[in-house]
Design brief:
This protein has two helices and eight strands. By secondary structure, the chain is mostly beta strands. The N and C termini lie far apart (about 35 Å).
């Protein structure tokens, strides 16, 4: 069966030579590698991607995601049937019901290329 790959965008941090998903809890991000499929950790999922660069720009302006370590990846992803973010800790499920404008949900993500390195907040405004 052929996978239904769609195109989107993923913001990541580059730390110690690795591209890691943005997360508010340090050490809980997934690692992304160009050309390699990434899936959620057990008990997590789906993963969030953005539909357009315009919505990435809006997210970055609201949450002030910028800096030398922030990268924008162009990705292929397979859509998830779930439309919320979820994490299970010690048997308890935590669900995020609010997602930024343009958020899509993926069961797997494959980065195609690094679109932009964001050294300064004003560079993100030129996406």
């Amino acid at each position: 069966m052929t996978k239904n790959w769609l195109t989107g965008y993923k913001l990541v941090f580059k730390e110690h030579g690795k591209m890691l998903s943005l997360t508010f809890e340090k050490g809980e991000g997934l690692e992304y590698k160009i050309g390699k499929i990434t899936k959620p950790k057990k008990g997590w999922g789906p993963m969030a991607v953005f539909d357009t660069k315009k919505n990435v720009k809006f997210f970055c302006s609201i949450y002030r995601w910028s800096g030398a370590n922030v990268r924008l990846l162009k990705v292929e992803y397979t859509p998830s049937r779930l439309n919320f973010l979820r994490k299970i800790i010690r048997g308890n499920s935590f669900v995020s019901t609010h997602s930024p404008t343009g958020t899509l949900f993926a069961k797997e993500v494959k980065p195609i290329k690094v679109e932009r390195r964001n050294n300064h907040a004003n560079k993100m405004s030129r996406m």
